[in-house]
Each structure stands twice: as structure tokens, then as C-alpha cells.
Amino acid sequence: MQKNRLGHHLLSLARHYSRVAPPPPSYADPVIRVSNNVAYLGSPKQGPKPRQLLSLPPFPGLPLPGKNSATGRITAISWLKYYFDEIPDSAIQSHFNKGLVEIESSKHNAADSFIERDGQMKPLRKIKHNEVMEVGARVWVPVSIAETRVSKRFDCIPSGTLHPNADEIDYLRRLVKYKDHAILVLNKPPKLPVKGSMPVHNSMDALAAAALSYDYDEGPKLVHRLDRESSGLILMGRTKESMNHLHWLFNDINPAKSSCKAWNDACDAKFQRYWALVIGTPKENEGLICAPLSKILLDNGKTERVILAQNVGLEPSEAAMTEYRVLGPMINGCSWIELRPLTTRKHQLRVHCAEALGTPIVGDYKYGWFVHRRWKQMPRVDIEPRTGKPYKLRRPEGLDVQKGSVLAKVPLLHLHCRELVLPNVAKFLPLLSQNAETLPPGLSGKPDLLRFVAPMPKHMKISWNLMSSYLV
Fold this sequence. Notes:
Blueprint: H1 2-14, E1 31-35, E2 38-42, E3 53-55, H2 76-83, H3 89-97, E4 102-104, E5 113-117, E6 120-126, E7 139-142, H4 144-147, H5 166-174, E8 176-179, E9 183-188, H6 204-211, E10 221-222, E11 231-237, H7 240-249, H8 261-268, E12 271-279, E13 286-290, E14 293-298, E15 303-308, E16 321-326, E17 334-341, H9 348-356, H10 369-374, E18 415-423, H11 425-434, E19 449-453, H12 458-467
Parallel strand pairs: 11-18
Antiparallel strand pairs: 1-2, 3-7, 4-6, 4-7, 5-6, 8-9, 9-11, 10-11, 12-17, 12-18, 13-16, 14-15, 16-17, 18-19
Helix pairs in contact: 7-11
């Protein structure tokens, strides 16, 4: 009996505090915080945490293995790059630019900080990247410099973390439309993300880096992007030289042109052509959209949205231009149009179609949600209107018309990069590297331009087959 009483007494002591709502800390009164227009009662926010610094070993002096010691000195940034050989040079340079790299100093100034080591307080002073290291000097850096080897949320996943199987490699290589020693051209399917993040491991850039290196040491790199829901031709560079020229080619503000007239003419002929199915039809059959775009943040900065700039001078904007052409008459409230972007802004075609033309793309619920709510979708058509006979070739047998087409309850995005024309980079690389004006004899016979055409994805083919009977 006495043991039971003792047990209950100990249990009451152990459960003195509630597990659901523990009391506020005794050292501070609860405060009211407001988040998303909702007031909360809780403890005050904690103060700034103490800095977490990492100490490098004392500088050993010359020579460092793998470093050129002919100058007889080693700078601070060279010492950090040698010690953190797995970390990108840009990350190390960024820590120097922000003044986060410090060194133990024998003299103390008013602006210096202190660090405790071996039971003593050591003064620290900021160090520049070009400062010469002395033997025995000890450098302190934030712990964040060692954590940069972990990929951030929106960074590309390193190809070393991916191990695609044979089926994935075969699937990705079947998407390749063209390959030479300078570029790769792929036909991206819908719903495949182009740029990966930490939750996304099957993005095109990460898979291509792991599976499309072929006989190169590194995989190809992205030159431009397509939205996750869109499809079509996408370009990747295979070497550093080709990437530099391709980035220059897809830059909206091109610098001075080359001395080679053939290369300049080929660059002027570069273009992309998209096909899209839109709800409604533009007022004019063809035209040029010149509507600058701005970015705004929604949901406390968690969501980014692109809108037409208001031209009031209060918000940053970027120029955006798109040529368009209507391919045929409006069919059941929809029209096929051709888009040719003259600039490369994020969501440019989707915003221009939805807000500038007033005809959002079918399946674009981000910029055309209200139009989709009022849109009366095309009814299931089984008979050709001109002949009165059932569909035969227009609707392939065994093909489910509900999978993302205009007949589906939730259609997929009907935006496809169908055609791409660009200079033959592999032909002009030797000329551009030597800054010459004429091509070598062996390369003059190759074409100056490359043209690629990609077939539409299945859901757009279904919509095209169902509606092409009405086209004139």
C-alpha cells in the first residue's frame, strides 16, 4: 500500500507540466505575435544565436601539394581553396566579399572580435582574399562555408548523387533529337521538370548530367528552360566554349558581334516557334505583342507570379515581345495559334496569351483560371461534321481521349516548342576561338544553320486530331 502511494506521488511529480501546452518560460512574460492577420500568445522570440566558427589548422607554409609556389607566397583565398577543395570557388569568394573570413591577430583593435581557444580569448580581424599567409597563421571561417557542399533547395542536384538505371538512360537518350561535339537537342515531354530542386530528383538537367555525358567527362548543361507542364525542343551545351556562345546567343542584349559575317548572319536567323491551343481567338489574325512583364510575390513571398507591367515607374519591369499568328478559325471556343518569342522572359508566352491577347492557353490554370471556369469544353465528337461518318483516322483505336486532351475534365497545358533554328555552333567554334574571319576549308561545306522540328505530345495530338476536321 505504501509502495502504491509512493508510485502515485512520483508519477504526479513527473507529470507536473502538460505535454500539450507547456507554460511559458519563467524568465519572460508571454507576448502577442501576429502572423497572417492571426494573433498568437506565446513566448518571446529567441535572441541571435552565437556565431559558429570553424578553425583551419595553422598555415603550414610552402610548398602546398598541387600548388604553384614559384611566386614564393600563398594568398588567403588560395589557402581556403586548397583546404576546401570540394567547395565551389564562387562560394569561397562570396565569404571573402561579405567579410566573413577572419584571422587571429596579435594586436587588438576596437573593431576586432574575440574567439576562445585553449582557454584564452584570441582577437580576430577580417582578412582580404589577396592577403599573403604567414607560417602558423590560423584562419577562422563560418560553418556555412563547409555546409555549401550540401545542395540548396533551388540548386541543381549534383550528378554524382544520381544513379539512373538502364531504363531511365534509354528513355532519356530516346528524347535526343540531335547530337554533335558542341550541342544536344532534346524533345522534352510534359510534366518533366527542367531545373531540379531538392525534392525533385528526376529533373532533366540532373538526369542529362548523369546519363547523357557519352564520351565526355561532364554531362551537358542547360542553355534555356521550358516550363514543367510545357513540352518541346530544348537545347543543351556540351563544352564550356559552346556554352559561352550559346548563352550569348540566347541573351536578349547581345554584345558586339563577331568579325565573321557568316556567324553574324546565322545568329540573326535564330528563332523558336511554339504551337498553342488557346481559349477564344485573338482579335487580329497576326501581330506583335510588346508588353513588359513584372514579378510579384504572393502568400508572404512563397509564390511568384508574372504580370503585365503597369508602366507607372514604381516597379521593376523587363521588356517582352512575342510575334503571334492564328493558324485557323475558332473551333468550339478554341483556336490554334503560333507563337514566336523575341525575348526570353519567364512565363512570357503564357502571360502574353492570357493577359495581352485575352486568350489563355488551354491547361494554363495559373494565368487563365477564371476563363477556364467559364469555358464550356468541347463535347465528345464521334461523327465527322462534313461527311456524317464515324471517326476512323482522326481518333486512333484504343487511344483514351480523356488523357489530357480538350475532352478531359482537367486538360494538360497545350504549349509546345515545335521548331528551333540556330547557328551550327560546331562549325563556327574553331573560327570563334581564333577570332578569324574565314572558315577553314574542311568546315566550309557544312550548313550554317540547323533546323529541328519536334512532334507534339500525345495529349496535344489528340486535341489536334479531334479538331483538325474543322480546320480550313
